[in-house]
Design a protein that fits this description.
The complex is a heterodimer of chains A (330) and B (286).
Chain A: H1 6-11, H2 16-21, H3 23-40, H4 42-65, H5 68-71, E1 75-76, E2 81-82, H6 85-116, H7 119-134, H8 137-154, H9 156-164, H10 179-203, H11 207-215, H12 220-229, H13 233-249, H14 252-257, H15 275-282, H16 289-317, H17 323-329
Antiparallel strand pairs in A: 1-2
Chain B: H1 2-45, H2 51-55, H3 69-99, H4 103-117, H5 121-133, H6 141-165, H7 169-177, H8 182-193, H9 195-210, H10 237-245, H11 250-277
Helix pairs in contact in B: 1-11, 3-6, 3-9, 3-10, 4-6, 5-6, 6-9, 7-8, 9-11, 10-11
The chains are: A mainly alpha (330), B mainly alpha (286).
Chain lengths: 330, 286
């Protein structure tokens, strides 16, 4: 921000002698400014490009199915029937499961990192979380298929069914790949971003808050709860929404563990399908134009949802300095 | 009254210890997957890593052995393509945000870059499929490289902007006062001072896209053989891992684990390199 004064120096009229001596560099200045401006404007071009290309690719499907595309659940490429509801449902439910797991863990870890942990633990733990963020999605999916799913199928899933089988959520047969497995793997993927952004937000809480609480005789936890967490509520909500944005678009790891069956089932042990997964699996197999158009429309729906969620997150986080945190885990 | 207060105090201390314990356990749970993934990568992958893995093409289905040399080279080619497009655009765009422009326009550009950073990577694949693959009638290395480049641009743009803003204003003023032109000041003084941070941002972006699979599925597409022309489909390490992981063959599963170990090692090496580069400068540079 300190650069604000720099432009003023050149914006003032330069002495005429200097101008006469260096016509070339005046031209260079202009050219360089225009060049960098053009490069910066690519972000505008890209946003328009995505929206236009996704719409252009799906315009036939949009005309043919209209609003029904979003609310019908038949996905039958052979009969040219396309309804995206099972994918929208799967995307929302798997992301919700991920949030239920990742939000308490992420915020508690962030509170531990900024308020409760001994100082020597903090930096190593932060580094480890950044390393977790660096693991490619496909590798987490590989681990999900061969390690996590067999383990879930043998231990936690039967246990869940035994004690919570009376609810529709945990009833029915256990296959392995399922909505719950998908939600769990997404939780692992979004834990780093929720933790880092929450940590950055808690760090931005003024020390005066803490001092006031300690001054009143609060314990560490009381100070954290009363003076820090409640103060940072809005920012933490922003962190959660940012995590949701990532969860909705998660592709590879989910595709590998969710079972890829377009259905709407009450039981979380049933396989599901997400918007991103159906793109990953079926895009190269689209044999008819309408099929491809429907997949483009899926892409458009996914883009629309994530854009809205991300806009909300950016607005919530706007006022808070979380730049470095988001950078490190993107 | 006194007794009650003591009791209350003990209870508050217990609650405090409990909360710290729960927060600590949460921290363990967060990094547990990292340990588990790394452990299983070593157990399942290390055995299949040998000379052949780095020098041979994939073996036909059913035949044992073979390697992933085409995928490793393919990934490097895709990274190079993405870098050629994405690095200049990202860095120069970041320079504009830090050095020029009005506050309002810059806030908008910054906002759009952040929104772009939240776009699911598979969306880029779909967009580039429509833009390049459909138009030029075929999957190609160019399409894959472009998809990765588009992911890089907003990432590099924001990191570059941040590190350039850290350069003290006195440097600019000193250079301008000596009669050096504005653009030379930016290139030779400002960008040079911030070069470590800029390179860090570039490396992190490369590490990030090096592990991307989704945007390559229907752009680079994958290839079981050498790619002889950039206008043809090309193999990439993450793509190959995905194909092998979801296949029914044990041999391929072993290769997938080995490939994953190589990929993670590469990504972690870059991250460690970044940590060494930025040592002692605090997290703000990253």
């Amino acid at each position: 921000m300190g650069v604000a004064t720099a432009p003023a120096i050149t914006r003032g009229e330069p002495p005429s002698a200097a101008a006469a001596m260096k016509p070339a560099s005046r031209f260079g200045d202009k050219a360089f400014e225009w060049l960098t401006l053009a490069m910066a404007l690519t972000v505008v071009v890209l946003v328009i490009l995505i929206g236009w290309q996704l719409y252009d690719g799906s315009v036939l499907a949009i005309k043919k199915f209209g609003f029904h595309f979003l609310v019908t659940s038949t996905w039958d490429p052979v009969a040219d029937q396309f309804g995206a509801l099972p994918f929208i449902y799967g995307t929302l439910v798997s992301s919700l499961i991920a949030l239920v797991i990742a939000v308490p863990l992420g915020i508690a870890t962030a509170a531990y990192l900024t308020e409760l942990a001994p100082l020597w633990i903090r930096q190593p733990l932060v580094s480890l979380i950044e390393m977790l963020a660096a693991i490619p999605s496909v590798i987490l999916g590989l681990w999900g298929i061969f390690v996590m799913i067999p383990w879930l199928r043998d231990y936690p899933f039967p246990w869940l069914r035994r004690f919570f089988g009376w609810t529709p959520l945990f009833s029915g047969s256990i296959y392995g790949p399922c909505m719950l497995a998908g939600g769990i793997i997404i939780a692992v993927m979004i834990l780093p971003i929720i933790t880092s952004v929450s940590r950055e937000i808690l760090r931005s809480v003024p020390d005066l808050q803490r001092e006031a609480a300690y001054g009143l005789g609060a314990t560490r936890w009381e100070a954290t709860r009363i003076a820090v967490l409640s103060y940072a509520k809005k920012g933490l909500f922003g962190a959660v929404i940012l995590g949701l944005g990532r969860a909705l678009g998660e592709t590879m790891a989910v595709t590998m563990v969710i079972g890829n069956t377009p259905q709407i089932a009450a039981s979380l042990f049933q396989p599901g399908y997400t918007l991103a997964s159906v793109l990953a699996n079926e895009f190269t197999e689209a044999t008819t134009d309408l099929y491809l158009q429907a997949l483009f429309e899926i892409g458009l729906v996914l883009f629309g949802i994530t854009i809205l969620v991300n806009l909300l997150a950016q607005l919530l986080l706007r006022t808070i300095a979380v730049k470095s945190a988001t950078r490190a885990v993107q | 009254m006194h007794l009650e207060r003591t009791h209350n105090h003990t209870w508050r201390k217990i609650k405090n210890a409990l909360a710290v314990g729960i927060a600590f356990t949460s921290g363990i749970f967060v990094i547990l997957p990292l340990g588990l993934v790394f452990f299983y990568l070593l157990i399942n992958g290390a055995g299949s890593i040998n000379w052949d893995f780095f020098t041979k093409l994939p073996a036909p289905v059913g035949a044992a052995g073979g390697g992933m040399v085409n995928a490793i080279v393919g990934s490097l080619e895709l990274l190079a393509l993405a870098g050629v497009i994405g690095i200049p655009i990202g860095v120069l765009g970041g320079v504009y945000l830090a050095e020029y422009g009005s506050a309002r326009i810059n806030a908008l550009l910054r906002f759009l870059a952040d929104v772009l950073n939240g776009v699911p990577s598979i969306t880029w694949g779909v967009v580039v499929y429509g833009l390049v693959v459909l138009r030029f009638k075929g999957f190609s290395a160019y399409a894959g490289g472009l998809a990765l480049a588009l992911i890089m641009i907003p990432l590099i743009l924001r990191t570059t902007e941040e590190v350039i803003l850290l350069v003290p204003n006195g440097y600019r003023e000193a250079s301008l006062a000596l009669g050096v032109s504005r653009w030379k000041t930016i290139v030779h003084i400002v960008m040079k001072t911030a070069s470590k941070g800029i390179i860090t941002g570039i490396l992190l972006a490369l590490a990030r896209i090096g592990g991307e699979t989704a945007p390559l599925l229907f752009t680079a597409f994958g290839n079981r053989f050498w790619n002889h022309s950039l206008s043809q489909p090309i193999a990439a390490l993450p793509l190959q891992i995905f194909t092998y992981a979801i296949s029914p063959y044990d041999d391929w599963h072993r290769q997938a684990w080995a490939g994953a170990l190589v990929l993670v090692t590469g990504v972690f090496c870059v991250n460690i390199l970044v940590r060494i580069l930025t040592r002692g400068r605090g997290a703000s540079v990253v």
